[in-house]
């Protein structure tokens, strides 16, 4: 990417910026709808599931273009989900039980989301023969 | 429509016009900046420390982003500043989805101990970074 054409780099940045705008806004919208701690659990679980689907879909069917992947993975999903707010909520938890609950909910549902996304990708895609013709 | 103009009176009795942008636009702008910063930082870390085994780039952005969010919150930022830097930039700079997918992929490759360590060390270092941010703010406030 370092030696890519400036316009190509600009396009990459623009695609990521648009995705980042949308992803962070979705997270902000969720935080307005439901309390802070459950909203972060929700976006982290859903975001992990969709990202896992896209990542494993690349292994199995690979129907999406590189640009679409860039917008959704690096842009929307990575911005929708967040580690910093989760870590701060954990650090500021009043009781040890609340602290454990926040960590267990985010880690547990985040990892469960990945497994759901992987399962969906496997169901929808037939594994591509390795080394065979693409498209 | 998106930008709210508020007329007020400042401490010297002058009429001032303050711009109060739509919160969603502030968060979105921060989110776009955070996403680009993450992309650049991830690339840099991956180039410098080419490690196929450990997802160092995601670890780095999550710890650094947690530290900065801690600084902003403990320094007492509120309103638009908190939305821009905290919810927007730090929120988008750090990522949970890449972290969880990479952790599962490590586990799948048979690197089970490394997967568990990645989850534990990311949490421990992010919490330590927030503690350090609190300490820095407390010390500079003295």
Automatic annotation (TrEMBL), chain A:
GO terms for molecular function: fluoride channel activity. GO terms for biological process: cellular detoxification of fluoride. Keywords: Cell membrane, Ion channel, Ion transport, Membrane, Transmembrane, Transmembrane helix, Transport. GO terms for cellular component: plasma membrane. Coiled coil: none annotated. It catalyses: fluoride(in) = fluoride(out). The chain crosses the membrane at residues 12-34, 40-58, 70-92, 98-121. Its main location: membrane. Fluoride-specific ion channel. Important for reducing fluoride concentration in the cell, thus reducing its toxicity. Belongs to the fluoride channel Fluc/FEX (TC 1.A.43) family. This is Fluoride-specific ion channel FluC. It comes from Natrinema altunense (strain JCM 12890 / CGMCC 1.3731 / AJ2).
From TrEMBL, chain B:
One of its GO terms (molecular function) is fluoride channel activity. Keywords: Cell membrane, Ion channel, Ion transport, Membrane, Metal-binding, Sodium, Transmembrane, Transmembrane helix, Transport. It is a multi-pass membrane protein. Signal peptide: none annotated. It catalyses: fluoride(in) = fluoride(out). The chain crosses the membrane at residues 24-41, 53-75, 81-101, 113-137. GO terms for cellular component: plasma membrane. Na(+) binds at residues 91, 94. It is found in: Cell membrane. Its main location: membrane. Na(+) is not transported, but it plays an essential structural role and its presence is essential for fluoride channel function. Pfam families: CRCB. One of its GO terms (biological process) is cellular detoxification of fluoride. InterPro entries: FluC. Fluoride-specific ion channel. Important for reducing fluoride concentration in the cell, thus reducing its toxicity. Belongs to the fluoride channel Fluc/FEX (TC 1.A.43) family. NCBIfam families: crcB. This is Fluoride-specific ion channel FluC. It comes from Natrinema altunense (strain JCM 12890 / CGMCC 1.3731 / AJ2).
């Amino acid at each position: 990417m370092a030696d890519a054409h400036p316009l190509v780099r600009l396009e990459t940045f623009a695609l990521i910026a648009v995705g980042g705008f949308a992803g962070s806004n979705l997270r902000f919208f969720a935080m307005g709808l439901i309390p802070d701690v459950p909203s972060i659990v929700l976006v982290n679980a859903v975001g992990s599931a969709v990202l896992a689907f896209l990542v494993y879909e690349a292994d199995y069917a690979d129907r999406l273009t590189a640009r679409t992947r860039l917008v959704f993975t690096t842009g929307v999903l990575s911005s929708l989900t967040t580690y910093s707010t989760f870590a701060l909520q954990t650090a500021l938890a009043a009781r040890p039980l609340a602290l454990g609950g926040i960590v267990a909910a985010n880690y547990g549902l985040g990892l469960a989301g990945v497994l759901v996304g992987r399962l969906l990708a496997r169901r929808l895609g037939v594994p591509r023969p390795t080394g065979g013709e693409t498209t | 429509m998106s930008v709210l103009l508020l007329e007020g009176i400042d401490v010297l009795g002058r009429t001032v016009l303050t711009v109060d942008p739509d919160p969603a636009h502030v968060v979105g702008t921060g989110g776009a900046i955070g996403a680009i910063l993450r992309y650049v930082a991830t690339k840099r870390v991956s180039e410098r420390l080419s490690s196929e085994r450990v997802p160092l780039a995601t670890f780095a952005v999550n710890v650094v982003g947690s530290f900065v969010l801690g600084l902003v919150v403990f320094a007492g930022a509120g309103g638009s500043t908190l939305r821009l830097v905290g919810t927007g930039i730090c929120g988008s700079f750090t990522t949970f989805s890449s972290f969880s997918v990479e952790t599962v992929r490590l586990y799948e490759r048979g690197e089970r101990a490394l997967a568990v360590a990645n989850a534990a060390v990311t949490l421990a270092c992010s919490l330590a970074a927030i503690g350090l941010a609190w300490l820095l703010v407390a010390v500079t406030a003295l």
